[in-house]
């Protein structure tokens, strides 16, 4: 286990960054459907936004504050965080010294696959900040060695532990009997959206691909993947745009290549999804590389 994770919780308000440290975001290694980051912020971090993934976090130092489902949440060093897909939240420091944290973003399809027959619906944990030992252990394990390679077997084990922890905290997910969900048809819809992420996709195309009418598709897609087909498509465009921006592409080039109308459209969607502008995101990454 690396030092940053091992020391989380030992000194709850002690900042691990030097005085006057600038805000930064560092990308860790990931895998298909998984993304890991580490970040530090001294003040306001993110505007209200929402992801199409589960977000599992570990506060490493300071006080990590955010508004979520109508209430303020405060996570101290060593506490775990769970934010569910499509739930609006923001982020800021609760103390002047700032906060440092790691976060793992997991596509809901992986959690669903890991639950197998045990889970009939995506699990929901109402406590956004938790000290549950099983959940904390799964998150700590997933976020250690952020720079090390993450092979397929390790990623599968990581997701399985997280799914087990979620089911333990929300056993009702194993008892729910939602309406019929055609997983094969939804897989075709997701594949079509992935393959045509930079193009215009309408409901008629998805109806032809899946054999479902647009309203049944919308309901079933959200039940299976935690978000709407449209938001899923936008997030895939944003994934591509972030990769281009990380390679110092211009905003206009990224917008054109990724299916956005223009750079203003890209900026609006980026801020809605991540709580910061593309320029701010790029600056935070460059700061982490210094």
UniProtKB/TrEMBL annotation:
Question: What domain of life does the UniProt record list for this protein's source?
Answer: Bacteria
Question: Would the keyword DNA-binding turn up in this protein's UniProt record?
Answer: yes
Q: Which Pfam families match?
A: AraC_binding, HTH_18
The residues forming a coiled coil are none
Q: One GO molecular function term?
A: sequence-specific DNA binding
Q: Name the source organism.
A: Bosea thiooxidans
Name the UniProt record assigns to this protein: AraC family transcriptional regulator
Under InterPro entries, the record lists: AraC-bd, AraC_XylS_family_regulators, Homeodomain-like_sf, HTH-like, HTH_AraC, HTH_AraC-typ_CS
Supply the alphabetized keyword list: Activator, DNA-binding, Transcription, Transcription regulation
**What Gene3D superfamilies does the entry give?**
Homeodomain-like
**Domain HTH araC/xylS-type: start-end pairs:** 187-284
Q: Which SMART domains match?
A: HTH_ARAC
